[in-house]
Amino acid sequence: MKDYARKFYKSAAWRKCRDAYFLSQHGLCERCSDPGLIVHHKIYISPENINDPSITLNPKNLELLCQTCHNQEHHGKSEVVRNGLRFDENGNLISI
């Protein structure tokens, strides 16, 4: 987690928003319908928008994702995440 976001993600406002959004999606990933795990910001949080609740706490900017779909969102199909490792098309970490 980025240092600038740490305080936000520990805030009561985020926890309340995250939990309400999770329930509104019945706990299911919005992309594949597997059990959801991560409430993801469609517009990524940045130092410039971290204090803008229309970005950080807006349900229209949120998406419930499972770990695999979240990995695909952030790491794509072929991005090398560590020397000799990348995510495959299913979001699984594989050796290359």
TrEMBL record:
The keyword Aminoacyl-tRNA synthetase does not apply. It comes from Bacillus songklensis. Belongs to the HNH nuclease family. Residues 29-75 form the HNH domain. InterPro entries: HNH (IPR002711), HNH_nuc (IPR003615). This is Putative HNH nuclease YajD. Keywords: Endonuclease, Hydrolase, Nuclease. One of its GO terms (molecular function) is endonuclease activity. The keyword Hydrolase applies.
